[in-house]
Design brief:
The protein has 262 residues and is an alpha/beta fold. The protein is 44% helix and 14% strand.
Length: 262
Amino acid sequence: MSTGQGERTVVLLHGYSDHGGTWQKVLPTLSERYRVLVVDLPGFGLSAAARWQEPLIDGYVEVLSALVGDEDDRVSVIGNSLGAVTALAWASARPDLVADVVLSDMPGVTRVPRSWTRGTQLRVDRLTQLLTRPLPARYLQQMVGALYAGAALRHPMRAGAGVRAGYVEHYATRQQVAALLTIGRIVIREIAELPIPTMIDELAVPALLLWGANDLLTPARAARRITVGADRRVAVIPNCGHCPQLDCPSEFLGEVLPFLAR
């Protein structure tokens, strides 16, 4: 999706299991200043049926490079979680296309969180039976939405019915859950294999790295590992979870907008 009429282009990349709707609370403000491209990465959201192959993150870099290949100038990239890892990989590989990056709640700065590994090691049959057998579809979707909000947000009620509905529509069947877990195992392996601390140190474009202080999935203590400098900024948003763009949109924009406008 493309919106906004600004001279500069900003690309938004969602996290694992998420989709482009995760940016809905910050998109209006960003669109007032920039042309914004909201991407559903292959395997997720509206691109769930799109073909993807391993290595997954390298494939994302190729897709994104083709997407902005006709842009007149380099783009800014904002990524959350897996989207942040993708943004880092893209900027590292193609600084000719990427001007700067915002890396929000990025895994891999220290290690891949255990909660990620444990979650994707669950057997598909066991998980889908647990979620689907006792419940009508509408209750299943309510439960999946509640689980998503509880894991991603410090303030789960801020997700709202629209956010939850947009999320769960992509993961309401056995096949969708199976596909999600398959991609998850690949993502975890690839993130673990990436030298993310070295990639941050060697990044040739300016970067803002930020975390929600109460992130349960990628704890904010990773921020202490980042060497701050003229082109490396670090921010920790108080009382905020893994998806600051949903949990604390005003505070998120308060960090992101000055960085983009510097």
